[in-house]
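Quiz preparation item.
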């Protein structure tokens, strides 16, 4: 993984604001006293902890609870809107990092809080409460890729991270790392809560989110990430992200035009 270049303006305890990250830029491992919402109004933002990686493409917001060590990495030119959430409001949100979909009301509230305008403290607090209220009833997005603790399973996931497109079966990967297919299959279920095929599909979809942001065609993305055909990518991507890759790219282009 490329080195994480520290961006202090996103690490320090700040009030609501926005920052710009270039492709490949990152925020070094850190913790927050308060909770934090990060909304990438453009680009893709990955949040990684020891438990795994959460990916937030445009129109998603990443939530990190207080005290959770994590780091971020940007894919594509990424504008990040940062909203701090005090301890009292944090109790209404999950106690682990999460990605949520962004409703029109939530998006407007996030933009108002982070566009630099002067707001009365009581008005800002009420608007932050609106943001949290919107998130309470929004289902979590399936954009989380868990990471294992078991050394045998981690050896397998490391191979897949290095080459998401590999066609190797679990049995073949097991022979490489010195573990049986049966043992690895059990570990995927017990440690990560999903099958090997589900985990690899999530990994590939996370990579697809990045490639599509960078402008790769759907057919090229499918080929480079190991899907048998574009239809297989479309099916997996839609099931996890909630929209087709083509629609996802259309929305990205529309946002860029709006900001131009």
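Solution:
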């Amino acid at each position: 993984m490329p080195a994480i270049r520290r961006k202090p303006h996103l690490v320090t305890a700040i009030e609501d604001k926005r920052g710009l990250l270039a492709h490949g830029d990152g925020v070094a491992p850190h913790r927050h006293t308060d909770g934090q919402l990060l909304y990438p109004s453009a680009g893709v933002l990955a949040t990684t902890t020891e438990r795994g990686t959460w990916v937030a493409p445009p129109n998603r917001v990443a939530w990190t609870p207080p005290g959770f060590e994590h780091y971020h990495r940007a894919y594509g030119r990424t504008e990040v809107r940062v909203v701090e959430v005090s301890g009292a409001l944090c109790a209404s949100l999950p106690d682990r990092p999460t990605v949520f979909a962004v409703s029109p009301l939530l998006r407007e509230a996030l933009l108002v809080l982070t566009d630099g305008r002067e707001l009365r403290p009581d008005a800002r607090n009420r608007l932050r409460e609106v943001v949290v209220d919107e998130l309470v009833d929004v289902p979590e997005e399936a954009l989380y890729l868990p990471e294992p603790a078991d050394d045998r399973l981690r050896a397998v996931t490391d191979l897949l991270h290095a080459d998401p497109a590999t066609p190797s079966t679990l049995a073949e990967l097991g022979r490489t790392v010195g573990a049986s297919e049966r043992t690895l299959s059990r570990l995927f279920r017990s440690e990560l809560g999903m099958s090997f095929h589900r985990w690899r599909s999530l990994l590939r979809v996370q990579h697809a989110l990045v490639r599509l942001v960078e402008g790769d065609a759907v057919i090229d993305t499918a080929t480079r990430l190991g899907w048998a055909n574009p239809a297989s990518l479309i099916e997996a991507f839609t099931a996890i992200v909630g929209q087709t890759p083509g629609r996802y790219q259309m929305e990205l282009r529309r946002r860029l035009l709006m900001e131009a």
